[in-house]
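Before going further, learn to read the protein records used in this course. Taken together, the tokens spell out the fold as the letters spell out the chain. A record is reproduced here so that you can trace the correspondence yourselves:

***
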Amino acid sequence: MAGQHGFLAAALVELDGGMVWHAEGAPDLCDAVVSAASDYWRLYRRSQPVFEKLGNLHVAMLFHRDGRITVSACGPGMLLVIVTDPRQQDIDWEQWKTAHARLEKLVSAF
């Protein structure tokens, strides 16, 4: 997935502890950044009653100056964290959704 146009890194991260199970892409993004990004999702879980009228969170996109972080649930207790180049406007998000669904199915089987 990290080889997809505009992607800088992709990682499968444990939701509760932020442990990176697998990561590929830019080494400086693959450990600390993707692990810390799972904190955004844990913040949502702690504040979930506040967002109740909006329903469950499916995807969170966070825009930093030099990178866009996308965090999404990917199987029981797991998150998919990707970092993309915010200057790339032609990212194929449909391809990402297809790859995400395949990965989520694999993770759910374990």
Q: What stands out?
A: Strands lie at 7-14, 20-25, 59-63, 68-73, 78-84. The chain has three helices and five strands.
